Structures are given as structure tokens and as C-alpha cells.
Design the sequence.
């Protein structure tokens, strides 16, 4: 008897729930070609039928930057706090250093829910690792993030901040953010199959998170103690603060902080994979 | 003994009834504490084994659990009890072109779709040309799929699916896609598959293809296996059961229709012999007589009959409209004679079914299944292996 192919043995629901995350990751690796092609599809089809195409992925954060800069400067009449030790005093760049990673998190999680929901036709007709629907969104969005960050890097260089040596650390932190985001996206996407409220609820939550994260303000400006803690040590706050440290201040975020990010990244990822795989055998039935 | 390709063991699948489904938190909270859903058993303790190289059929009415079984075999649904084991590389064709993206080109979609079906990149690249050739879409392969006609779309999808090179192919009702030429090609591909010793599981309504293609079949009724074995016997029993849902007349014949005009009996004569018979020889000249009774005058009826072999092949099915014989009105009792000279039927048993319809063949006055059964005995010419003779004249040079 030969056992061939990745689809060799379909699990029964009785003993098959909550298989360990590593086994599922191995199956995901076996289908890495699918993952590659799905990500490519995600990237290729995103700006089809639009004249500006990929420029939109830059125009969106740039317009936000413009709006918030005007509000920050002329409505709230705040001054940018200089980066320590970089000495850089520039609100738009500070804003982008926080906004780009946050947008990656917010957009990826929300698009992932749609990707799994939109994959209903596929899920009901073909057996394949469902997590790839989420992974491919993460990868495509990560590519976008990298392009956006390179624009930010150019802007930083133009304003005289020598940010190049800090990029490897930034990329490492962004990888942790990607793992963290994947975990959250997996849980949300799976839950959303069963209860569509999750999608609507998450829109509100990510809006709250946007304001609870130091993006349009400097953490030093907060006066309320719990908000300070949230801004500094909340999950998104942690990643954004690290991004500010590296890109705006040009300093290492501190080993405690880096450790926290690693725990958040890997922890979220594995919990996400575990929960998603427990729920995904029931997708076809629920959709 | 052959290797086992697929094992289905005591599979039971329950569904929550759709109307009771809670897809929002509010419904969930509101339904708390009450009996939240009624259960429906789609598959009830289904077990069977498919061996390598077999063509295995699954038949059953709508709602008999065929699709659920298919999805359990394909690994899309998880059974509540029991298990399914697939021992060979499997490709399940539940829907063609699942996962095609309209904005992507045919080329990109081939790669994506093949990857979804479980192929590696190198494997796809190696088979790419074959896939394109099979689809016959060489000149459109770089155009976005959204510009394809539905026929082109299906052809491309089928070309990908069939070229995944599975050892076990699970097919759902998709033999009837595309135009006649493409259907022919698909059929050839299936035959090629079968001759290669690959395993095919065919889930279908099309009893003809089950009878013609399958080595073994099961019959599902309300989620249970009601029969397993030789496809011909099974299809016969199945047809009988299906027709049994309709009326049976006093003679035990199966009939349906509105009944204003009925075929009361069918008689068979040889030449001008006045005695009705039940058998004749190849090349005899025969006469079929359809006796009818019209309860009230019926305008422009169309009489027809069908001769079917025991194996289920329709030999001929003429009707009066084909020859322009349309009586303005029939009433009371009467009969229609059909003369057939030197009949080409070869030895075997045949059934006659009759129909009477209105002129447009929309309304059925009467339809009698198995109005007459007759035997053909060997005459001249004598041949074996088929239903009719072409009266060949052989010369060997």
C-alpha cells in the first residue's frame, strides 16, 4: 500500500480536532507552492482596473499623514518632540513610522476575514489548507509594508537622519509584528466564519486601538496613567513604540521590549494556528 | 486481491438544519438554553471499499446523501462518526474552476488552480503544455479568464483537473460539460484513465454512464446504502423503484400521464399471421399494434414507442409526428399498426415502452413502461456482441 500526496489521509472529526500546530505547519509547507501563488494573486489582483494602481498603497498613508499633520500642528498647536538621540524633530515622519506598521496590522486582520469568507466557494469544493488564505494576505500586505517603509526610509534620509544601519533591526521587529498579526488574523477569520459580527466588531476595536496607540501623539503627552501603560505596553503600542525607537529615535528599543515582542509574535502565531486548525474542519459546513 | 484505493468506514454525518443556524452573536444569545437546532442525518453508517483500478458508481435520488458522501470522501466535510481513508493521490472534481480568478490570465489560473488541487510548481510546469493543449485554448491563454466564454472556462478547468494525474479520481456530475466534441474528449480521457488501471469514483444521476462505465456501484437512499454490486442490476432496481413511485395499472405495468387517451395493450405479429406472438427471429418482418382507448375525443395526439434492450440501450424510438401522421381527432377505441420489414435486431430480450402525448410533446396523455417484452431468436444474419446487424457483406481479398 502506498501513501502518496499531501491529501493522503483525511482526518476524522472525532479525533482530528486540535491537531498540533506543527503538524499543520508541515502540511502548510507541503503546499508552499499554493501559498506562493495565492500571495501573488493577492498582489496582482489588488489594483486591477485602477489607473494609479500600486500608487494607491502609497497615496493612502500619505493623505492620512497630511491630514493628521495639519490637525496636529494647526488645530491642536502641538510641537513635535525631538527623537532621542537622533534629534529629529518632524511630526509627519514620526507619524508615518507609527502608522505604516499599524496599518499593516489593521488592514491584514480585516482583509483576512474577507479572504476566508470570500474563499467559501473554494472551501466548499476543494480540500486544501485553509490557513493559506490568511497567510497569503499576510505575505501580500507585508510586501506592501516593505515598499512603504522604503519610501519612509528615503524620506528620513532626505531629512538628514542616517537610518540605514537601523533597518535590519526594523525588519526583524516587523517580522515579529507579522507573526503577531497572523495569529490575530487567524483567530478573527475563523471566528468570523461562525459569527459575522466579528467583522463589524473588529472595525470598532481597531479604531479604538488606533487611538490607544501612540501614532498621532507622543506617548509623553498622555496624562492618564492607564492610557500610558496601554500606549507603552499594549500589544500594538509595544510594536509601534519599538518602531518609533528604531526609525525616529535611532536607538535599540531595550531588551525587555524586544523580548516582549518576540513572545507576542510567536505566542500569537502558535495560538492562532492552533485555534484556526481546530475550527477549520467545520468551515465547509458553516459557510 | 487489488490494493485498496479508498475506504469508507461507518461514516455518519449530521447537519444542523439551515433555518436554525446562528450566524450572529445576537441569535446565539437569544437561542441560549433552548434546543438550538434540529439535526438531520445525511449519511447513516455508510461503509464500503473501493479497490484500485475499479470504476465505482454512487447513485441515488436528490437528497439521498450523494453529495455529502462525496464531500466526506474529498475531505471537505468531516464525518461525525466513522472515517474515510484515501490511500492514493486523489483529485476530487466537485466543481470545475473552483478558485479561478477572473482577473488573472488563463496561464496564471492554470498554475493557481493546479496548486489548489495539490500540485507542486515543477510538476505544473512539466504538464503545462499538455494542459493547454487539452483545453484547446492556446491562443487565449494569456487573456484574463473573465473574457472567456463559459464553455472555454469549463474546458480550461477540466483540462487542469484531469491533468493533476491522480490515481484516484472522484467525479461529480461533470461528464456533461462543454460541447459535444469536448464531452467526447472527456469521455476518452476517462476511458484512458480506466485503462491505465486508475480508480474512478463516479457520483451521478446519469444511470447510463453508471451502467456503461462502472464495475461496481452502491445505491444510497436517505443516507443509507440500499444496494451494492453489479451496476446493471442496481440501475434496474433503482429505475424500478423510481418508477414505482408512479402509478401501476391493473396489469402491474408502470404508467403515468393524464389518461384521456391510453394505450390499452401492445401486440406483436409476424408477417400477416393473425396470432400475437412474443418472439421472432432476426430478419423477420413484424407488425406492432398499439391498441388505444380515448375516454373523450383527443385532438392531434402523437403516438410513440421505444424499443430498449435489457442492458438499457435504446434501439429505436420513433413517433407518429416524425412521419407526419397526425390524426385531427381520435375517440373511442382503435389501434395503430407499425410494420417493420426484415428487422435488424440481434438475439436478446427487448422491452417496448409506449407514449401518447399532445402535438407539442409537452403534455403526456399516457406513458407505459414495459408495455411489452419480447425475445429475438437467432436468424439470418447471425451475429453476437451487439444489438443490431448492418447485414454486412464480407469479401476478403
Sequence:
Amino acid at each position: 500500500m502506498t501513501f502518496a500526496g499531501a491529501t493522503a489521509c483525511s482526518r476524522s472529526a472525532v479525533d482530528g480536532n486540535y491537531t498540533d500546530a506543527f503538524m499543520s505547519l508541515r502540511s502548510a509547507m507541503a503546499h508552499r507552492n499554493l501559498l506562493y501563488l495565492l500571495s501573488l494573486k493577492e498582489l496582482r489582483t489588488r489594483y486591477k482596473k485602477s489607473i494609479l494602481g500600486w500608487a494607491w498603497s502609497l497615496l493612502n498613508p500619505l493623505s492620512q499623514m497630511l491630514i493628521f499633520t495639519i490637525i496636529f500642528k494647526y488645530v491642536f498647536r502641538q510641537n513635535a518632540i525631538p527623537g532621542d538621540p537622533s534629534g529629529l524633530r518632524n511630526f509627519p515622519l514620526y507619524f508615518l513610522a507609527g502608522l505604516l506598521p499599524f496599518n499593516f496590522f489593521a488592514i491584514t486582520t480585516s482583509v483576512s476575514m474577507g479572504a476566508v469568507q470570500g474563499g467559501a466557494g473554494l472551501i466548499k469544493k476543494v480540500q486544501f489548507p485553509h490557513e493559506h488564505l490568511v497567510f497569503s494576505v499576510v505575505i501580500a500586505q507585508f510586501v506592501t509594508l516593505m515598499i512603504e517603509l522604503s519610501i519612509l526610509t528615503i524620506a528620513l534620509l532626505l531629512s538628514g537622519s542616517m537610518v540605514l544601519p537601523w533597518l535590519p533591526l526594523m525588519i526583524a521587529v516587523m517580522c515579529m509584528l507579522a507573526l503577531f498579526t497572523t495569529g490575530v488574523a487567524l483567530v478573527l477569520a475563523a471566528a468570523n466564519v461562525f459569527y459575522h459580527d466579528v467583522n463589524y466588531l473588529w472595525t470598532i476595536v481597531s479604531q479604538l486601538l488606533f487611538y490607544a496607540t501612540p501614532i498621532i501623539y507622543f506617548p509623553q503627552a498622555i496624562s492618564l496613567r492607564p492610557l500610558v501603560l496601554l500606549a507603552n505596553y499594549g500589544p500594538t503600542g509595544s510594536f509601534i513604540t519599538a518602531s518609533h525607537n528604531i526609525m525616529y529615535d535611532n536607538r535599540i528599543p531595550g531588551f525587555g521590549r524586544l523580548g516582549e515582542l518576540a513572545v507576542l509574535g510567536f505566542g500569537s502565531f502558535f495560538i492562532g494556528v492552533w485555534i484556526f486548525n481546530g475550527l477549520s474542519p467545520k468551515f465547509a459546513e458553516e459557510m | 486481491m487489488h490494493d485498496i484505493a479508498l475506504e469508507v468506514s461507518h461514516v455518519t454525518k449530521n447537519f444542523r438544519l439551515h433555518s436554525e443556524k446562528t450566524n450572529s452573536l445576537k441569535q446565539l444569545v437569544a437561542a441560549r438554553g433552548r434546543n438550538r437546532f434540529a439535526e438531520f442525518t445525511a449519511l447513516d453508517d455508510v461503509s464500503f471499499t473501493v479497490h484500485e483500478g475499479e470504476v465505482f458508481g454512487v447513485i441515488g435520488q436528490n437528497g439521498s446523501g450523494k453529495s455529502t458522501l462525496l464531500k466526506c470522501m474529498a475531505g471537505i466535510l468531516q464525518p461525525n462518526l466513522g472515517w474515510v481513508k484515501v490511500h492514493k493521490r486523489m483529485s476530487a472534481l466537485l466543481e470545475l474552476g473552483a478558485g479561478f480568478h477572473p482577473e488573472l490570465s488563463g496561464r496564471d489560473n492554470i498554475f493557481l488552480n493546479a496548486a489548489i488541487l495539490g500540485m507542486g510548481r515543477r510538476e505544473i510546469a512539466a504538464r503545462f503544455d499538455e494542459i493547454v493543449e487539452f483545453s484547446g485554448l492556446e491562443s487565449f491563454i494569456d487573456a484574463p479568464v473573465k473574457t472567456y466564454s463559459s464553455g472555454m472556462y469549463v474546458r480550461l478547468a477540466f483540462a487542469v483537473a484531469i491533468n493533476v494525474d491522480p490515481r484516484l479520481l472522484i467525479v461529480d456530475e461533470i461528464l456533461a460539460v462543454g460541447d459535444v466534441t469536448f464531452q467526447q474528449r472527456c469521455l476518452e480521457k476517462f476511458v484512458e484513465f480506466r485503462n491505465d488501471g486508475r480508480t474512478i469514483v463516479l457520483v451521478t444521476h446519469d444511470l447510463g454512464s453508471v451502467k456503461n462505465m462502472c464495475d461496481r456501484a452502491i445505491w444510497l437512499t436517505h443516507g443509507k446504502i440500499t444496494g451494492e454490486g453489479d451496476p446493471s442490476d442496481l440501475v434496474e432496481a433503482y429505475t424500478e423503484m423510481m418508477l414505482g413511485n408512479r402509478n401501476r395499472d391493473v396489469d402491474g405495468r408502470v404508467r403515468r400521464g393524464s389518461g384521456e387517451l391510453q394505450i390499452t395493450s401492445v401486440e406483436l405479429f409476424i408477417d400477416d399471421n393473425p396470432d400475437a406472438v412474443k418472439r421472432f427471429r432476426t430478419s423477420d418482418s413484424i407488425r406492432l399494434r398499439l391498441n388505444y382507448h380515448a375516454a373523450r375525443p383527443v385532438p392531434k395526439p402523437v403516438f410513440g414507442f421505444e424499443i430498449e434492450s435489457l442492458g438499457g440501450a435504446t434501439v429505436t424510438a420513433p413517433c407518429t409526428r416524425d412521419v407526419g401522421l397526425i390524426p385531427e381527432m381520435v375517440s373511442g377505441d382503435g389501434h395503430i399498426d407499425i410494420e417493420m420489414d426484415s428487422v435488424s435486431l440481434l438475439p436478446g430480450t427487448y422491452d417496448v415502452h409506449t407514449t401518447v402525448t399532445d402535438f407539442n410533446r409537452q403534455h403526456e396523455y399516457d406513458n407505459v413502461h414495459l408495455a411489452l417484452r419480447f425475445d429475438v431468436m437467432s436468424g439470418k444474419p447471425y451475429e453476437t456482441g451487439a444489438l443490431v446487424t448492418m447485414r454486412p457483406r464480407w469479401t476478403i481479398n
Summary: Chain B is about 25% helix and 35% strand. The radius of gyration of chain B is 26 Å. The CA atoms of residues 17 and 38 of chain B lie 6 Å apart. Chain B touches chain A through 48 residues (CB under 8 Å).
